[in-house]
TrEMBL record:
Protein name per Swiss-Prot or TrEMBL: DOCK7 protein
Organism superkingdom: Eukaryota
Family under the similarity heading: Belongs to the DOCK family.
PANTHER family on file: DEDICATOR OF CYTOKINESIS DOCK, DEDICATOR OF CYTOKINESIS PROTEIN 7
Organism of derivation: Centropus unirufus
Keywords: Guanine-nucleotide releasing factor
Amino acid sequence: VSPDEEGICSGKYFTEAGLVGLLEQAAASFSMAGMYEAVNEVYKVLIPIHEANRDAKKLSTIHGKLQEAFSKIVHQQENSSAQFGKDMVGFCILHSVHGRVTFVPTSLGLTLPSDSCYRLVGFYGERFGEDVLEVIKDSNPVDKCKLDPNKAYIQITYVEPYFDTYEMKDRITYFDKNYNLRRFMYCTPFTLDGRAHGELHEQFKRKTILTTSHAFPYIKTRINVIHKEEIILTPIEVAIEDMQKKTQELAFATHQDPADPKMLQMVLQGSVGTTVNQGPLEVAQVFLSEIPNDPKLFRHHNKLRLCFKDFTKR
């Protein structure tokens, strides 16, 4: 809105009724999108207006819609066991064209990452020609010298929302974990000799954290990445992270209400089954059989021991 434009402030939306109409539309749209927490935020603005106007009819309608919205939130939370693993699904795709532009397209839980991937490949295939387009499907850094200058390359990697530990205290519900997101992460396993996967004691992991210029969900379907940060995890740190993840899965499976024996059996098999290569037993034998010589690793060694203590409790 430009205040210099003639007549802009005398338009139909520049009245109290205009504002009320727009907010009611916004609430209806949020409700259709299943974003019931945002419905409440919109009505927080509307309620004082109707209270000042003593409009009991409108207030009655709003409170009815709020009751509906909160009932749906309760229903979502009760069914959160069905969302196990979906809480942090990589619903976005990192996408870079010729290494110059990096986007995170929005597909906020409504489309599967694979569908978004096909759509992007189809779009750029039409734009450049399918014989010219080549998709790089791993997340490793691309050596531009090895690329054919006559081809168009896109690199697609699944990313998931990234939160600091302190943020997790506030991001409790499914909505919190999928709303107002600006940081995303993807992991790339590697070994020092160039292979992606190796033995436990040589398995490193690179975490790449991307920050976007605006928060998701956003009006545009793609948002530029403005900052990129890399964290290298040593083999023992990779093992600590794996053990923490297994412990969380066990905790979730044992505290489900109602109990789900199939889920518990799957998690247990993945945790202690002898068929699983490089399971917790292997981790303990590789990293905990003797105290490390390097004093820098003492802290990690202790942390891994505590992880196992927690794991055996679970």
